[in-house]
Amino acid sequence: MRLSFIFPVLLCAVILTGCNSSRKAVSPAAGPVAVTVSERYDVLTGSYGAWTDVTVPLSIDIVSPKSFSISGRARMIRGKSVDISLRMLGFEVGRLYATTDSVYGMVKVGKTYMAESLAEIFPGMPFTLGNLQDMLMGRLFYMGSDSPVAGDFKKFDAESVEGGWILIPKTHPAGLEYGFNLTFDNLLRSLVIAVTQKNIVAQCDYSAAYVDSKMGPLMSDLRVKSDTPRYKIDASLSWRWNDARWNEGAVTTWSMPKGYKRVKAADLVKSIK
Q1: Which domains does the chain have, with CATH numbers?
Q2: CB contact set of 144 (below 8 Å; sequence gap of 6+)
Q3: How does residue 29 score in pLDDT terms, banded at 50, 70 and 90?
């Protein structure tokens, strides 16, 4: 494996996430015995079920840039949209909506909304919307492509480490490196993204696997930590995959709210009480 900036960062992630989660993970269903890293990759990515849409409850706990917790419901259309309704006491208080090139949000209290490009929300990180959905679900992906990663082990460098294995793409977008840290049970443990030109490192830690009979392993808990030039991010998201509804032909739409004041993303988060 070639030496890269992201490799030592991933090794640190292995150490930091090596202890057991407070919620016991569920191992994937029994399948072919995988010995080599390439076999592990094929078993894992081969278990990913195809989907067109999903509706699933979730809860969000944000420490920074502002501390608050909220529940909601997400509706995702594969590769097209992510629509999250934020609710308190059964009433919608806010909404987040992402398309292939833009991110929108609104908070009903105070009547504020935001509209920014994906590039503004993720500076230096050329995510596709499909990449973002895979990241939220705890699946492997190849940045910049929405094509399934099954059968594409040749695009990655891989190495066994204590308690698991590391997967790093052989090529990266300019100014960026990223990689995955997985257990020997083929569960995603962490994703690390480094924007080398901007000195930004973001780490997503995963726990509490849920294995769907058709969709394969899905990670229920995700924690994101990063320091960006604009603000510090420390947030956790928990999915209730056991209550998810798949491939029902769901649709999502967004229209600019009338009478609302446009603000920046950080200001929108601060407006939620």
Answers
A1: 6-270 (2.50.20.10)
A2: 126, 128, 131, 173
A3: very low
